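Pipeline run #58 for the internal structure catalog. This entry was flagged by the ingest filter as a single-chain record with no existing model, so it goes straight to prediction. Upstream metadata was stripped on purpose; only the residue string is passed forward. Reviewer on rotation: M.T. Logging verbosity set to normal.
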Amino acid sequence: MILSPNVRSNLLSNRSLLTRRTVLLVALALMLLAAACGPAPLGTSWPAVSLIQTSCNDQTSTSILVAYNEFIVQVNPADGKGTVLLDPQDCQPRSDENGNPLVWQYKVDGAARQFFSLPVQYQVDGKDQFLAISWDQHIYEINASAPRSTGAEGTTIAGRTGHTVADLVMDDQRIYIGLNSKDVVALDRDTFDVVWAFTTEHGVWSKPLLDNGTLYISSLDHFLYAVDAASGDLQWKLDLNGAVTATPVLHNGRLYISSFARKVFEVSLAGEITKDYATDDWVWGSPSIVGDILYIGDLGGSVYALDTTNGLSEVWKRSKLAAGAIRATPLVYEDRVLVAARDQKVYWLNRDDGSSIIDSEGAPLVRELPAQILSDLLLIRPEDQVDIAEPYVVVTTLSTGQLMAAYTLDNGENKWLYAFQ
């Protein structure tokens, strides 16, 4: 998106009249507008990826589920090729009229019907289904065995306008949806009728956390909310002194979350800050917690390892590791931490001290990709019923020509590339 000279001039000349909070919200709004108006090959969304398992009769297969722009696709994690669509009757590959195998793909039509968030997988009468929501709040029920046969229009949320970038949350009775302008709504799982709506003062850009009947909601209005999932009633709210764009992580009876206040917070389930740690810059993403150590990056390119058993004390810190902002959650596996940044690079670090892992040529192990990395890294292991000899990390970029790339965890060998069709 290009701002006119007049708009840029007005923003600059009036900046002294804006409060820090207003500046923040304007900046965040412009960031999302820029993503929505970006030219090809950026498209209108960032990729959402997850690892899923689907069944056909007695056959179980693993795929990478990717939602990006107007498509939802499945990709084979072993070779990066499109997952072949199976006939639900005999579980044999389906082909087109020319005998070419059909790949699993679902597409929506409409200028604003792009995907920012992950579909939710569930079952109906033992059959795999997906529930997806597009940018313009259209909800789609997708039959996993026949993704082309579902209706193209989708279901809208009654009485609501605006857009959705956060992942859905679903339980046995309700679907919970955060709205990027403001509020969270709960829908009846069967009818999609609004059961309740919870009011926030600004947008919800992250997936709510559902635990033991409580929905934890983070918002750009600076607050973390605890809401009764059945009724939508407020249990407590906590001011984190800055916009919150990530889902809290629950660990050992505490919530861990960061905000644009340049802090990582430990929060009790009663809604009190019990510990905090100051970061160098704003923090966008959720932390990764492994072995009681919390790993997180900030928008200034620094990475932190903090001990959750010792008051979020610093284990190690890599200042300005990346030249671009770190939005993705670090990936921790065995003795290493992988960090992806908007400088188009993935960094391999030693888990014990944060130092760079050295490659066979004596240089830090780093892999550069053709576009920015905004989505979380995806770990693929042989035990995930994938035909690979060693674990892979899948990195997702904003380039449709190289949407995903898979690397080995030990030495960063590139195993496959996936171009978005």
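catalog note: The chain has a mean pLDDT of 88.
catalog note: The longest helix spans residues 20-37.
status: ready for reviewer M.T.
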